[in-house]
């Protein structure tokens, strides 16, 4: 049997990791500023994470949602505290797409409506409705096509106001990333998120904050949407939540009332997933990782802005997009193959930095030095 070949692969086999470093099967060391696509939040093989997971695995790894799982209650309590949304409710699932799917389903149960507002450049995952809200026709199969989704230009206040005037009480939800990731690291403006909040209030629509990539402390605040100073109705999260263990969730405002059978999953919120998510929150809190993300992110941004070849540096905290001109399209590959530094990318020519939230200044400097060498070669 062969693998179903859907991924363009780098010819590198990673076999070991520690903090922000990984090693390949030949013993070559790499600096990881990509984190397997924003997933590694507290660093590879963090001792507390390994201990928590090992300990849980030795007791029990899995049981379904037919019994009480105390780890879920502990996780809800801790997440409420660390995210600052203490009165919200938690539903656990397994991936970012699934989180968005559940958030939209919840919104639709809540107000009985079907129309979803999404934005140009957005990425929300690959399940049916999540992919329909994703601005990439190439990954939308005919079976996913729907008239329910309206795409608006990102950060366009007038277009948003017009859409509400046109569709009014038909609008079920507005789904927006606090910082577009796949779209090239493009933050939503505070004014835009504030307008979403007030229009959703006015029309009883649901504000869904996709925090799958930009959440869990990455931006320097727990949810990057928090920069706007208004609450969303539902926050979706995944990636950094489990530091590599597949776990996702939605944080749900108190006005949503659950009923048995409304949402459900077999694997979501199992014992191991909760141990992983709890250990991540414990490290984020104890080691002040949101503060570190904010300060190392600000340092990197300031230094990157000094390179005159860079067109623009975007993002917040440790979610940084370096927009380069076309003639510098070789930079990402050179960073990887000459300097052994993993970074991410976005089309057409944006380098994405999505490192662990405990990235040190020394590692930031290592990257800046290599980046300068590649640019000035
Ligand atoms: C903003 C955003 N939402 C949703 C998803 C989908 O998450 P998953 O791949 O875990 O389904 C992603 C994945 O890249 C994402 O960046």
Automatic annotation (TrEMBL):
Enzyme Commission no: 2.6.1.11
Protein's name in the database: Acetylornithine aminotransferase
Single GO molecular function: pyridoxal phosphate binding
Keyword DNA damage: no
Keywords of the record: Aminotransferase, Pyridoxal phosphate, Transferase
Assigned protein family: Belongs to the class-III pyridoxal-phosphate-dependent aminotransferase family.
CDD domains documented for this protein: OAT_like
